[in-house]
Amino acid sequence: MNQSQAKGFGSRGILLIIVLFLGFFMFQTFTNYPLNILAEDFYGGSQTVAMLLTIGTLAGVVTQIILSRFVGNIKSIKKAASVFGIIAIVCAWLVAAISFYMTRLWYVFYLGVNYTVTLYALFFMSIIAGQWFPCRKGTIMGISTIAYPVCNAVIGFFATAVYKPLETGVSDSPAIFRSFLPFLILTTIGVILFLALITDYPEQCGAYRDNDKSFTPEMANQMLAQEIEDKKTTVWTTAHTFTNRDFWCASVVCGLILMCAVGTMTQSSTIIASFEKLNYTIIMMIIALCGAVGSWLLGVIDTAVGTKKSMLICVILMALAGLLGFIACAAGIGVLIIISLALVGIFMGASSNYMVSVSVQYWRREDFASVFSCINPVANIFNAVAPTIVALIMYSAIGINGVFLMILAAGIAGIILMIIFSPKHISAVDDRYREAAGKPLDGALEGRK
Questions:
Q1: For a designed S-S bond to 433, which of 20, 147, 235, 250 qualifies (C-beta 3.0 to 4.6 A apart)?
Q2: What is the SS3 assignment for the chain?
């Protein structure tokens, strides 16, 4: 691609960014909000709700692994995403509307929204993002995943609506549905926009990959037809992908980033409350600002100098966050916990960027969907167990200190794995598989940064 021909994102590309943003926003709202803010008072405790989140997300992970075997043959990722998106938004409305007295029924739909939104936002829509912007995926995902820190920031403001009637004596019932309503409206709009205006590939609506205007319609359509055909015979089968060393390095690092970001944010209110002089709302705003900048900046670095370097920077920040957080908890230093959580915000914003980026960057376009279908579920296993693991650590003898020790250890492990990760090795393995399959060796993966 000629980068000079790909300035801006185009009107359809901007629309895709908005839809991705709202999809990630939905995931964060209807998984994190009930767990982080409401669980202890209304839904049976954070340990119970965290377990439900884990079960729902793991069910989504298993589905993704099953789909990875034939994802290249799915005629329309958009149609598959639409089914899960519609079910997810219905479950979201019911999670908000069902009375907290009807706990078991609420559990059913909370499980449902966790399962379906994992597949809708984190799996199918992420594949579409990679198909639309294969060379600029870092920037696109970096902007879209700003949704995570933004959502975490605004949740606190709307959560006050839950408790206000009880505090003022206006009502003896919490205003749970009213506090969810702005999120429901926004995310419903996102699903409607996706259904009405987003296509599997940009060429299907008159746009071009990466908004590259150097293409002619004939060139673009010919490349699209060839790519769709090549996907059916990808050499990166599920078996080949799961036995590749570099796949595991990348997947585990993506998972560790997700685990530390998601797990920490699900207990952010408890962590901040342990420092008496800190204001939860202000701290969450700081985290949101750092997260928005971090998501965008790490995405830009991803596009400019390569995904491996961007991921390495991310895990270094993670290790630093863990170290500062541990010192803060051990010594009771509020300023250090603010800095630590701000760093968590930075890599939280980037936590979902890299599954798409690393799959596109170091494998061929025709192999992207099948490789991503393996990387994403492995990473999301860490995502699924994060709330449960952090809750267990929080309520153990080691307490909050243990959470930051976990982040520090994960950061160090991530640094080691990213040093081992080798694009050259992927290219050599790709040549071997292509030669065995009778496909031409064209050096397309050589020099990937």
A1: 235
A2: CCHHHCCCCHHHHHHHHHHHHHHHHHHHHHHHHHHHHHHHHHCCCHHHHHHHHHHHHHHHHHHHHHHHCCHHHCCCHHHHHHHHHHHHHHHHHHHHHCCCCCHHHHHHHHHHHHHHHHHHHHHHHHHHHHHHCCCCHHHHHHHHCCHHHHHHHHHHHHHHHHHHHHHHCCCCCCCHHHHHHHHHHHHHHHHHHHHHHCCCCHHHHCCCHHHCCCCCHHHHHHHHHHHHHHHCCCCCCHHHHHCCHHHHHHHHHHHHHHHHHHHHHHCHHHHHHCCCCCCHHHHHHHHHHHHHHHHHHHHHHHHHHCHHHHHHHHHHHHHHHHHHHHHHHHHCCHHHHHHHHHHHHHHHHHCCHHHHHHHHHHCCHHHHHHHHHHHHHHHHHHHHHHHHHHHHHHCCCCCHHHHHHHHHHHHHHHHHHHHHCCHHHHHHHHHHHHHHCCCCCCCCCCCCC
Residues 270, 183, 314, 319, Cα dihedral to 10°: 10
Q: What percent of the chain has pLDDT over 70?
A: 97
Residues 314-361: tens digit of each pLDDT? 999 999 999 999 999 999 999 999 999 999 988 886 777 898 899 989
